[in-house]
Amino acid sequence: MLGKKATFLVVLLGVLGVAWVLGMEDILPPQQLQPQLPAFHKTLRKLDLSFSGLTELPEGLRYMENLEELNLSDNRLTSLPSWFGELSSLKVLNINYNQLDMLPESMKNLKNLKRLTLRANRLRQLPNSFGGLGELEKLYLEKNRLEGLPDSMKNLTKLKVLHLDENGFTEFPQVITSLSNLERLYISSNNIEALPIEIGNMNSLQTLQIEFNKLTFLPEIIGNLRNLKGLVLTGNQLRELPDSIGKLKNLIGLLLIGNELVTLPTSIGDLDKLQLLPLDMNPIRTLPSTIRNIPAFEELSNELKAKVGIVFPEGPPENLFDFD
Predict the structure, then answer these.
(1) pLDDT tens digit string along 217-266?
(2) What pTM was estimated for this model as a whole?
(3) Fold for domain 172-324?
(4) Domain-by-domain residue ranges, the chain?
(5) For 305, which of 44, 177, 225, 293 is 20 to 30 Å away at the CA?
(6) Are the CB atoms for 179 and 153 separated by under 8 Å?
(7) Are 68 and 48 in contact (CB under 8 A)?
(8) Which fold has domain 1-159?
């Protein structure tokens, strides 16, 4: 039994396979928690140890061979034990808001893992064995210190959702273009300057959010992303869009706020499903008349509508960005 003074109460309903962790005033040290766990190790399916002040994991966890969901978020963990991979039944793992700077190689043994959230840690790299997580469908790695991804990630063939916002990428990780079933990619607030040509291979992509980077252009191959519904490019340095943008027939939202665009290609008029086209904070000088064909035209400001069809009498000035 837990001591009367223990104000960290673990309520385990082994029959139902559910666990709740209720924090009160103080934290029961892991060494006191450890003896309480093995009795439930055969039946426990879910365990929530979030906001528990943990600096290390209790040894008793390793015996929970049928545990499917584990929440370790908002603790003070700096590492995971080498035995962590023994939790091979895990399907959902949440380790958000800790202080992890590396992951154990044994993570590769979590063969049933479908959802992994590691948001807001201190990770600089992922282990080469990371590609062993072959059942992974959703991966959240925002707010870390990643500068690259291991090549083994190409083996994550079932991955559909990938969050990489607020890391240290200066180049678009090439291995991402191998993820042929990826549907949603979020890689905003990095320092990426260009997209690789191979991005055209990502035929399943429906959402690409790459705002607040340093993109100055998009490759023509972007037009291959025929399933794309949302393209978020806010806060980059784009001066023009490729003509192939008009091939994105399923595009519903194209967010271009805060770039350096002076016009849009005539092919913009081919996007007959486009409902959202914010152009604020761009030095727009003219817009093609074809823009009237898209649903988003009605949402443009009167100022922008007035620039439709404007033609420079002698061609555009040599420097479109010199308005003096």
Answers:
(1) 999 999 999 999 999 999 999 999 999 999 999 999 999 999 999 999 99
(2) 0.85
(3) 3.80.10
(4) 1-159, 172-324
(5) 225
(6) yes
(7) no
(8) 3.80.10
